[in-house]
Amino acid sequence: MGPKGRTSTYPIGIVDWDSKMIHLLLVETVKEMWDVLVAAKESQGTMRVLTLRRRFFWSPMEEGAEMVAHIAVLSQVQSNICLMGEKVNDDEFLAVLTTSLPESWDMFVQAYFGATNGVTMDPSGGMKKITSQELATVLTDKDRHW
Questions:
Q1: Would the pTM of this model clear 0.70, i.e. be above it?
Q2: Is the pLDDT at 21 greater than 50, yes or no?
Q3: Which of 12, 29, 71, 83 is the most exposed place for a label (fewest CB within 10 A)?
Q4: ∠ Cα 72 73 77 (to 5°)
């Protein structure tokens, strides 16, 4: 038999680091072991992405919390989602950031978007959409002076 067909006479321990559980499986070939590992990691990956997306969309900022800390949490979750091979575009981040703010920020956000009409000037004098980074900077500055 070739390397993929080697027979194992011992149980092979597969460690699931996410849940800290050890599963013992009896497999007869290296290929079977690989297939089990791939299947386990794919299902964990899908669940991890769903968990991260849920956390991303359901991370409201508590009243009185620091804006910098809130934006850092959202940015970290966004980074983790991207590390899992999924994309979070800037419009999505902008929407999540805006809707995650407490009600006390509603008037400011409405005034800001109303005054800018959702666009800013770029360095060349043209118009461009407000980015999440620009909004984060404005919110952070406002939070420091509020």
A1: no
A2: no
A3: 83
A4: 115
